[in-house]
Amino acid sequence: MTDVYSVDVQITAPVMPTEVTDRVRDAVENLFPEADIEEGHGELLAEAHSMETFSELLHEEAILDTARGQFLADRQGGTFSFDLKKQAAFQSVVNFAVGEPAELGDIHVRVTVHEPSVEAYIDHVAPRTEDGRPVED
Question: What is the distance between the alpha carbons of residues 101 and 107, in angstroms, rounded to a whole number?
Answer without folding.
Answer: 10
